[in-house]
Design brief:
Helix content: over 70%
Number of helices: 10
Oligomer: single chain
Structural class: mainly alpha
Shape: globular
Number of strands: 0
Length: 279
């Protein structure tokens, strides 16, 4: 096993430990386990950052065009957003979503090896605007999903007057989860809009047309309109509580199906199973 394989194994182990300890600490209401989970997640994120820097520094276009790189980058972006919210707003509870999902995405990055068709001279624009902004938006939507799921679960327990356990007593109030959901939507929608618009610019420069009725483009527009509706309802009409929580859960699941199902199973311009064009 070479040094690079050991690095991947270390990242996987730390992400697995972070997920296990965070879940165990939450279920047992033990702060020491949650703290250990956070340390593992931070350690895995640091090594993951080194891995991505190494990949980019080598300037190997074949590696950067691989589908597994996208999953790895998404996992890293998700944890970046989580750590930022944890540091600024003390929303540690979002780790219950971020850690398991980052572990899943990183494991997925080890399994997929397809390519994306992309001219080399546009790679900077593609990664900087299109992928970067979309992944940030998706990471925020993933955290909105986690906050929404927990909100719905806690609300049901409260309405049914279920007995409080150590786990539920240790979680924040419903308003904290609603605040996290609202913040993710307010930040995520402008980023998603930037990602979609830069994608249309990318399409115009690459294929000579803005819209080609590609399945990925159609679903992306559908998600954008749904995201815009949620954004409007939150800001203009003051949506709170159950409705935006359910909508965020549904929207993230559609986005995840789009990313995995369309990119791998449907022949599109965005397919991870096609080879890059010959220069």
């Amino acid at each position: 096993m070479n040094a690079y394989e050991l690095l991947k194994l270390a990242i996987f182990t730390l992400y697995l430990g972070g997920t296990a300890f965070l879940l165990a600490g939450t279920l047992s209401a033990r702060q020491s386990l949650r703290r250990l989970g956070a340390i593992c997640a931070v350690g895995g994120f640091a090594l993951h950052t080194l891995e991505l820097i190494r990949l980019v520094a080598t300037a190997q276009s074949a590696v950067l065009l691989a589908g597994n790189f996208y999953f790895s980058l998404f996992a890293w972006t998700l944890l970046l957003i989580y750590f930022a919210l944890w540091w600024r707003l003390r929303m540690q509870f979002l780790g219950l979503t971020a850690a398991p999902l980052a572990l899943f995405l990183y494991c997925s990055s080890l399994a997929f090896t397809g390519k994306v068709a992309m001219p080399k001279h546009l790679s900077g624009l593609f990664f900087g605007l299109h992928i970067g902004s979309l992944f940030l938006a998706m990471a925020l939507l993933a955290l909105a999903f986690g906050a929404g799921m927990t909100f719905l679960w806690m609300e049901k327990r409260i309405k049914t007057k279920a007995k409080l356990t150590r786990t539920t007593q240790d979680l924040p109030s419903l308003s904290a989860f609603d605040k996290a959901n609202a913040l993710a939507v307010k930040l995520g929608f402008p980023l998603y809009t930037l990602g979609v618009l830069s994608g249309f610019v990318w399409a115009r420069l690459t294929w000579g047309r803005v819209f080609s009725w590609d399945p990925k483009e159609i679903v992306a527009l559908f998600i954008w309109f749904a995201f815009a509706f949620l954004f409007h309802q939150r800001l203009a009409l003051g949506w709170q509580g159950r409705k935006p929580a359910k909508f965020a859960v549904w929207l993230f699941l559609v986005s995840l199906v789009s990313m995995v199902g369309i990119n791998f199973l449907v022949p599109t311009h965005h397919s991870f199973n096609q080879l890059p064009p010959t220069p």
